[in-house]
Please model this.
Amino acid sequence: MKLVIVGTGYVGLVSGLCFAEFGFETTCVDKDTKRIDFLGKAQCPFYEPKLENLLLKHIKKTKLLNFSSSLSQAMNKADVVFITVGTPSRRLEDNADVSSVYKVAKEIAKNIKKYCVVVTKSTVPVGTTRKLRNIIASKINKKKFDIVSNPEFLREGSAINDFMRPDRIIIGCENAKSEKIMRKLYRPLDLLKIPIISTSIESAEIIKYASNSFLATKISFINQVADLCEIVGGNVQDVAKAMGLDKRIGSKFLHAGPGFGGSCFPKDVKAFSATAKKMKVDLSIVESVNKFNKKRPKNIVVKIENYFGNLKNKTFAILGLSFKPNTDDVRDSTSMIIASLLHSKGSIIKTYDPRAMRNAKQILPDLHYCNSIQEACVGVDAILIATEWNEFRNLDLKGLRKKMKKAIIFDLRNIYNKEEVLNLKFKYYGIGK
Ligand code: NAD
Model:
């Protein structure tokens, strides 16, 4: 089978590489010609562990992977076409902007040469894939294609592993023919006994939003519990650990912090809530998660402001800018929001991130970008640990204290033991403890 993937972002490129790894001839298409040139030379447009090696392997060695900026050419022999373009929030609105998905659908319709399966892998609100079928069916014979919703659950930072060893594969389809083709694509995962769940198209679309919204709810829940702990003298880490031991609850996504960020959770929570409103269904749990999470970085800055009295001319070392470790993605990153808020209140921000500074500079050019943790900490009033990169987990606090103006740590990811830090003559502020 020959595959075409439209969109070479975090999801498209990883999917293309992994399908090549499964042995399929795959062509990745993007409208960004610079990106396609770059990828053709086996150069990665973003940082994701393990990506570069696979890129080299499948471009140079197996030759299963091709890149093109022409969808019409790529479509020549396509058996399956995946749409993996972005679906960001609409400007000033909560619903997802699916215009790129529909645009690609129109282009696909113009270029279908023989029967093929058109798959939405982008996260799209319920109803989108069926609309997409109508768009294509208005141009060509309905027998020449089928549509499938195959949402993606990979996480940036561990995307290749997640794609190769997912918890489950969801195939939302309308008939046995397209289901069979999709199951054939994922057959290499049979050895790992990965469950493949076939559902209606609508259920598949909802599964993606419901899953992300549920995880976001878990994060917001523990963040609210953390706020209570701070007031009454509890320790949210002890609370979360004990809660997580209950198998019905589980320990994942119970880490208190500065709120969830990234390219998926914030926009998906908003879009899910918007869908419910449109359908006049009460999904107020998700709506309140969205509201609370939006306020969270602001509330953290208020706590820092309350500590110092005034933030003007205070200098902070912000360690970490990406929304999570092992990625250079700064979209909706809480570290970036906090950096921007502190800066707008007159603080001087020195910052260091192992991978994300190039992307961050484009959005917040006025921060002082440093080449090392040590450089970032010279002369600062406090360190803020904003992203839990491994290299921030074992800082030489004794050494750093000598370089800092004041010895204070705001550990927004709770990666340090309070007593140990206090013993090193630092003032320590974690979340919920
Ligand atoms: P991205 O922004 O990194 O990449 C999107 C790519 O699509 C870009 O390279 C862009 O140039 C290309 N594109 C846009 N319009 C195009 C067109 N008309 N023709 C060809 N190419 C076009 O996006 P992403 O982070 O990979 O996310 C893609 C989708 O997958 C989104 O719906 C997202 O919600 C979902 N998703 C993302 C993740 C993640 O961790 N990033 C995980 C699961 C699902």
Observations:
- The longest helix spans residues 201-232.
- The two ends are 55 Å apart (CA to CA).
- Residues 6-12, 29-32, 35, 84-87, 100, 103-104, 122-123, 152, 154, 156, 263-264 surround nicotinamide-adenine-dinucleotide (CB under 6 Å).
